[in-house]
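Standup notes
- DV: blocked on the single-chain target, sequence here:
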Amino acid sequence: MIKGCKICGIKDSNTLSFIINHPYPPTFIGFICNYPKSSRYIRSNDLKKLLNIHKNKSKFVAVLVKPNNEILEKIKNLPFDYYQLYDCTPDEIKFIKQKYQKKIITAITIKDKSDVIKHKLFASVTDIYLFDSKGYEKSKGFDHNLINNIKLNKELMLAGNIKFDNNLQNYEKIADYIDLSGGLETSGLKDVSKIEIFLNNLNKIKNEA
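- DV (later): unblocked, structure below
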């Protein structure tokens, strides 16, 4: 059953204010903290200004690709509820979780079945699993059938080129949360009209459940 969503790659105050104050706000809002290859990357100084806002009902997520100590220290006092970690070992995640006292979304990038079973390595250190494509900033998809039958002891977040107007019922049996970024954009920028459609559709699905 879909419980909510994450809107990722926010970098401007107008979009952030729109989704935070929406009647059906996302459960999570993600910010790209240390991956300059992404057009959604936001520098630490700009991030500090952007996050000087009341979160209302949403949780803030720092999206980090194998973060080093420098970036972890820069963001440690920002109002993040979760760290979403790519390309980290279980030991690295355990260290980050304990030192910075954050909940962890472990991102597992998937190409084939051998990638899916890696989730078992992170069972003791993750709070939410994110199954994503290997596209990173390129908004690629992956075969969601690969995760149809896995059994997890934690909640599952699903990403990978999901569009704003997809039939969300397609994901009800496999995901607790839907994660969108590029699917909510037009010409590389967040499009509030697409966000509006997506959040309203998600609310309908939750009410029907």
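- Follow-up: The longest helix spans residues 192-208.
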